[in-house]
Amino acid sequence: MIADFRLKVFKAVADRLSFTRAAEELYISQPAVTKHINELERQLGVPLFLRQRNAIVLTAAGRRALRHANRILAAYNALEEEFAKYGTLAGKEIRLGASTTLSQYVLPAILARFRHAFPVVRTTLFNGNTEQIEQLLAQDQLDLGLIEGNASDRKLHYELFRNDRLVLVTAAHHDVSAPLPIETLKSLPLVIRESGSGTLAVLEKALRACGLTLRQMNIQLQLGSTESIKRYLYHTDTYAFLSVQAISEELADGKLHVVETALPPIDRSFRFVTKHGVHSRLVETFKQFCLGNQD
Hints:
Number of strands: 11
Largest sheet: 7 strands, mixed
CATH architecture of the largest domain: 3-Layer(aba) Sandwich
Shape: globular
CATH superfamily of the largest domain: Periplasmic binding protein-like II
Mean pLDDT: 87
Radius of gyration: 23 Å
Distance between the termini: 42 Å
Strand content: 15-25%
Helix content: 40-55%
């Protein structure tokens, strides 16, 4: 039986005539796209694409397959639309897992609104780092994850939720000249998140792009949450790279301030993450609710 997601992969490649662009759109790796296409060709018994040096084109069989794929995927959408009005979410449960920044600073307001809009849905939220959320999803212990950082597990499907930025902060009482040169960063007493944290992974990648590693930095302490890092900063002259989502109140209250550096902006994405394949209506409803409530 041809899987629904495999048809979506085929359509993405066929529409863009690019394995790379299809992989970017679907948030999966290019080898994963190739594997899906190869398996679909094996199942159908015909080549669907002609691979040329710098491009691919649909074969005659590929064009016929695309017509079928379009009709099948349209039928799926029509089926969902037709019966959506009869469906009910009463008594349903959605098991969410979110990395620390999201669970503490982004999701609470969204969950409050979701509860008001769907009072019949039971919602549970597990708070852990990105690595833990991915592991629980792979073990079918969560229905949907929301993580920070880069897509890392080929067995999982990633979709953009919203964008974020890490900034260097220190206590407001700590006077420092800015912007700080990159070389000066190596001597700053730094507090960082624990291993497995999406925030730490993004920071490491940004430092590598500037020729730096964590080993070269003056790491004073590793702490397991953004809240503990902020409270540590209040009483010391240390620094930390934190999400702008997590420090809005502290900036407004004058407890912390942002220190400009010569580093390029450290941008990252918050992402939805699920297992590959067809997902429940409730998961899709929650994702769309999140996308529509980002203020």
